[in-house]
Amino acid sequence: MGSFFSKQVERRKSIHTQKKLLYDLKEKTSSNFPGSDYRSDDRKNWMSTLALEKLQVNQIIWPGTHDSATNKIGIPFISRPFARTQSMSIYNQLVTGTRVLDIRVQEDSRVCHGILVSYHVDVVINDVKKFLSETQSEIIILEIRTEFGHDDPPEFDTYLENQLGEFLIHQDNSVFNKTVAELLPKRVICVWKPRKSAQPKHGSPLWSAGYLKDNWIDTDLPETKFESNMKHLSEQQPVTSRKYFYRVENTVTPQADNPVLCVKPVTNRIRPYARLFINESISRGYSDRLQIYSTDFIDEDFVDACIGLTNARIEGKL
């Protein structure tokens, strides 16, 4: 028992030390980066407010959400706090400016996060289609994967094609160098990541798993995650040289051996440092590698940081 408490004390010290390291770095670092003062007047249509004929797919800093469809997961006040990473519906996330969705499904096509389940994926698709019907020039990256430990929903690729067919941008490497204006009226890049079923092939309406990559590590230590994100970002090719999307997630994850198991207080150890990460990636020379930037509990400030940096790229300020 004494060993257990000793480990917990050391763990709390490590968390405190790492939070202080990020806080001190933020205090001594300028918060200004190209586009940092940008504030969108219309986040629902933010791509439309930029120069669509100049905005190439590989230039966009895509604001994304981690475990996007968890707003109603589990049982309220009982299991939900342990798995909920977003408080807004998919539709409201899109209206707020989110453009990359991370959806996990199980065999019966219900959204899940580990062993906890939520609504049927139809809710996600209907929210996406509602948003698309109300906008004209917003491109969405919709990543759907079979959750670890589950089998693929039967004929799920057919389901996605039937539901989103008119909007789907087909799998094609040339898409990365195209502008948003050139892709319209097609508006959804749907990456389907099955566990056992065949991957979508070149030319398919859906995109295969290799087109959306990340280097996720399972930690609740914020500075450890911050520096891991930076290290893996540094190892990527510039966005203009690669034919896949690369995601950085400004998140940390509750650990089973730690007393704090609810998502929000844990992920809040790193959430305030989203702009710091952007600033540090620029100062360390990695700004040309940033692409998808995701978070838990997305907010308007996070979205504005991504839009501002995107606009700076278009204007040649980055």
TrEMBL record:
> Could you tell me which residue ranges the Phosphatidylinositol-specific phospholipase C X domain spans?
51-192
Query: GO: which molecular function terms?
Result: phosphoric diester hydrolase activity
State the organism named in the record: Solanum lycopersicum (Tomato)
Put simply, this protein is called Phosphatidylinositol-specific phospholipase C X domain-containing protein
Q: Name one GO biological process term.
A: lipid metabolic process
> From which domain of life does this come?
Eukaryota
The record's annotation in SUPFAM superfamilies points to: PLC-like phosphodiesterases
Check the record and name the InterPro entries matching this protein.
PI-PLC_domain, PLC-like_Pdiesterase_TIM-brl, PLipase_C_PInositol-sp_X_dom
